[in-house]
Design goal:
This protein is of the alpha+beta class. 28% of the residues lie in helices and 34% in strands.
Length: 239
């Protein structure tokens, strides 16, 4: 394991790619314990700070994890199909494999921003605020907004057990059209950092979903804030 100090590529980046190659090639399998940072620094003939930064990046990307007092280990990185997040039809799968904890569920006056996103003139929306969990670990924050005038009495249903898709299509007989999704990168504020149990300023993945019925009316706007290190996100497209 060598780095080239004559290259313009930063040393930590060279170290990172060498370590990453050992992981992706399966030379270092799942559960493999890395040598100590001191040993790696000696092996690469670089500073401990260089090793720390390379390992920090790989931990952030979900290829490694640290155990206090034990060391650094290779981990598996789950794959998450984004189509399961963007389609209401897949809520059943999501609720089965990614249980949630509801933080807020109520009807409230819509802000001007939410009214604009929902393209509505009325003042009230249902707000659903919850955290998605994986093995009791928070992996995503969800905010959903639904116009009250389109779904009167929505909160009279058992929102912890009934899926939005079923409520829309079966209880209210709405025929869904399509969902439009926007993706972006954000950085965790203090509230998001507390909920997701990560440092303030950590890079996060933001997904905004607009669901419309067959007449083109926006019936739901949701925003999902996801930890990036938890999964490789992908889209699978039928050809």
């Amino acid at each position: 394991m060598k780095v080239d100090k004559d290259l313009s590529t930063p040393l930590y980046d060279q170290v990172k790619h060498i370590l990453e190659a050992k992981i992706t090639s399966k030379e270092w399998g799942v559960g493999y314990q890395l040598p100590t940072e001191k040993k790696l620094a000696e092996t690469f003939n670089v500073s401990n700070i260089t090793i720390k930064r390379a390992i920090h990046d790989l931990v952030h990307e979900g290829l490694l994890y640290r155990q206090s007092g034990k060391g650094t280990f290779v981990k598996t990185k789950d794959e998450t199909n984004l189509t399961r997040l963007v389609s209401l039809r897949n809520e059943a799968w999501e609720n089965q494999y990614h249980p949630h904890r509801t933080l807020n569920l109520k009807a409230e006056k819509a802000s001007s921003d939410i009214k604009r996103k929902l393209e509505m003139q009325e003042d009230e929306v249902y707000k659903i605020h919850r955290i998605k969990l994986r093995e009791d670990i928070p992996v995503a924050i969800e905010y959903s907004y639904i116009p009250v005038y389109l779904f009167p009495g929505l909160l009279e249903n058992d929102m912890e057990k009934e899926l939005l898709y079923n409520l829309f299509t079966q209880t209210y007989h709405k025929k869904l059209g399509k969902a439009k999704v926007y993706f972006s990168i954000i950085f965790a504020d203090s509230y998001e950092a507390e909920l997701l149990q990560l440092p303030v300023g950590e890079q996060l993945f933001s997904l905004e979903r607009y669901t419309v019925d067959e007449e083109g009316t926006i019936i739901e706007y949701s925003r999902f804030i996801l930890k990036q290190e938890q999964s490789n996100f992908y889209l699978e497209i039928d050809l």
